[in-house]
Specification:
Rossmann fold; BirA Bifunctional Protein, domain 2; homodimer; alpha+beta
Chain lengths: 456, 456
């Protein structure tokens, strides 16, 4: 067979050892905090039945599903006429019954319903797995990427919102990243729409508020008028456009503005409860900001809306989530409400890279490499290698009796900080020469001293 | 939309929290040892171009690949005549350009060639990721399963074989499993075939030797005669059929039997070198057994063949590997030799389950749950929760003000060993009541005492 020039599919990535170390640093930080807050890990298969996935992400989402061709004779049962049918979706449905998961939420909902009798509610689950989307790849957008989700379902308590924000706070404190946690509540947005008599336009109104700073009030007004909103009602939004100040000032304004909307007041009360919990000790490391322009997931979030932005790097949201009312209704199990968040590991990676803030410990290299002079030295070194490893030290021996220059350059390129050398003299004295690759300093040491130096 | 009864594709699995804890115990044990021996992690995409995968696993393997339907208009460029072509493989090739990876070896080979200029050789890589095969699901055989591979490439040194066997030894010692590491060398099998003048029949002969115990010598002989082997040559195999004894006795017999085969003697020398290294301190915890019936991967292994069997549970091999000469030739990069092993996590899981040998620590549960009496108590508890977590204790509060019975039954079902209670009296004394869920014992303790008890 002719040699192939190897490549990988568009929008997918290989991860090199150094990238893996950094990614593992992020994943293990998130996982450890998930665990500490009592979340339990589950995993679901990469493939789901298309009947599980289709119709859950809107028409656009359906198109972005990766479908798996049925195995065996995938054309069996397909009528030849169907090939000329211009509706290829129908044909696709016949020749593929499974697809790759698009997110972790729908598989989680499916999991909950399928295993409802084995689950203790409230159920706090986390899940860190890749998802696939046939999106157009671009900078920072991939066709395969990891999601890190934590959800607590089967409980309406606002303690859950508190817990998730504390968890977010701890993750970013551990990663030494300054972030702002933006909070909103869909009920406040519903209240605003209600107060101006435009309850059905909640999405338009929120999007408009969101654009205020970018395009100015006149353009926002024109946009809403263009969508058919009544001018008198639009005028009622002016005080919202004018809203300023810190969280307390905003809340105080909203309490007055929404005084006639039960829903709106409930949203404010929910926010106040969560913020009250968050004001208790121990203090947060991150800033909490009430932001009524937060419109994330408006079609399914019913209460809290959460979004996390870096204070240091201009990049989209690096974590987000919210409360929903009905996770599993589509699978025949109504009234499962909950609240969840999802960390964007790829963006967090970009932020840490840009700030050069991966700790040295995130790069786990071999600590010491033994030079290989030949058989006699190997016999001397292998037992020492065993002792070092039994002490938890990452150690290796250069496998081949190559030129010294090549062996040292391997250590250099592999970021190995120490090289140990054992020749006739060292063997006679039952010692090794340890070379610090950075300073060039060499010391003749016993195995015990070697262990202590490497452990330090 | 009508409610769907949710299910997952045949041959795939959901993993519950308890299963995940156990799986993580296995994966993290293997990963830690991989790291300690200087292996570096990489990851490759779930999807590879079909041009990378096809033709690498034989005709049967090609059929077991999961193919991904091209996204967008998958029928564009397909002539309507092609649908009636009975060769559906041709059509499949047009409507799908990507497939799910079938193993970790071919993607690794592709990775090495694609990134050859960034890699320092010898390259010691490990990879723990799922693979997919459209196999017929049956007990212990799944369509999605994890492989845990470690390979060292770009080095011919037998130290690599030693390192991998030491690594295997350490993994199974840590897992507290008694295993036997079976060793063979393809050159010995080649030598035997050469000595009897049947070099081309190496596979037939090995398979025959392997069946000896099961079906008896007469049947084995008949099988080989049926395949056209000359009777006189077959008689020359008798001493091999008769071979008995420990490793040294077998080696001594083979040295004599293979005295005229340079290849055979080289195989013996290689085995002896590796076993010599393994006889050095620190001693192995596992048994090493020379087993010339080991025929694993005969079509690509060129030197050492390794297979690990449980001494305690009758199940297939739980780890295996060997040395190969040409990993990357198919992608245009010749002469990359190496040696690798792969752990079978699913079978190791089954062995540990059957022996009830998962340690209690493999099941990571919340350590303490606070009962939720209401708002006043919540205000008292949340700061304590924060202190416990800052000490690394996995702690949670029951989110809802539910009946006590429900809260305790949640703790019970979630295997939470301690429940902490704070009512009026506790709050007044700045203490909590800690209940041991197993013994039923209750103690009124300070937060500091609580930390010490939970840390113990």
């Amino acid at each position: 067979m002719a040699a192939q020039k190897p490549s990988i599919p568009k929008g997918t990535r290989d991860f090199s050892p150094i990238e893996m170390s950094r990614r593992n640093y992020i994943f293990s930080t998130i996982r450890e905090v998930f665990r500490k807050y009592g979340f339990q890990q589950i995993e679901t298969p990469a493939m789901e039945n298309l009947s599980t996935l289709l119709g859950k992400y809107g028409e656009e989402g359906d198109k972005l599903l990766f479908r798996i061709l049925n195995s065996g004779d995938f054309l069996s049962g397909v009528d030849s006429g169907e090939f000329s049918d211009p509706d290829h979706a129908a044909l696709a449905g016949k020749i593929s019954k499974r697809g790759l998961r698009y997110d972790l939420t729908v598989p989680f909902a499916r999991f909950v319903v399928q295993h409802r009798n084995e689950i203790t509610f409230p159920f706090k689950r986390y899940q860190v797995q890749p998802v696939w989307r046939a999106d157009n790849p671009q900078k920072g957008r991939y066709r395969e990427f990891y999601q890190c989700d934590a959800d607590m379902i089967g409980s309406d308590s606002l303690i859950n919102e508190y817990e998730l924000i504390k968890l977010i706070d701890e993750v970013f404190n551990r990663l030494k990243l300054k972030v702002t946690v933006k909070l909103n509540n869909r009920k406040i947005l519903a209240g605003i729409s209600e107060v101006i008599g435009e309850s059905s336009r909640i999405v338009d109104i929120t999007v408009a508020i969101d654009k205020l700073e970018k395009i100015g009030r006149d353009n926002v007004r024109n946009e809403l008028l263009g969508k058919g909103m009544d001018k008198a009602r639009l005028d009622l939004l002016d005080p919202v456009f004018d809203m300023k100040g810190n969280n307390e000032e905003k809340l105080s304004f909203l309490k007055n503005y929404l005084r006639d909307s039960e829903t709106g007041l409930k949203g404010i009360a929910e926010l106040e409860t969560v913020m009250g919990y968050l004001s208790l000790d121990p203090p947060l490391g991150t800033t909490i900001e009430l932001d009524i322009t937060l419109a994330r997931g408006l079609n399914y979030y019913t209460g809290a809306i959460i979004e996390v932005k870096s204070d240091e790097v201009n990049i989209g949201s690096i974590c987000g989530g919210g409360r929903y009312d009905d996770l599993t209704g589509i699978f025949g199990m109504p009234d499962v409400s909950g609240v969840g968040i999802s960390f964007g590991a790829d963006r967090i990676y970009d932020v840490l890279m840009q700030l050069d803030r991966f700790p040295a410990s995130a790069e786990e290299h071999t600590q010491v490499m033994f030079v290989n002079f030949g058989e006699k030295e190997i016999q001397y070194i292998l037992p020492i290698l065993g002792i070092l490893r039994s002490k938890g030290i990452i150690a290796e021996i250069y496998p081949d009796g190559a030129k010294l220059k090549k062996q040292f350059s391997y250590a250099d390129n592999s970021f190995i900080p120490f090289v140990a050398i054992a020749g006739d003299q060292e063997i006679a004295e039952k010692k090794v020469t340890l070379k610090d690759m950075k300073s060039g300093e060499q010391n003749l040491v016993t195995v015990e001293e070697l262990i202590n130096m490497l452990k330090a």
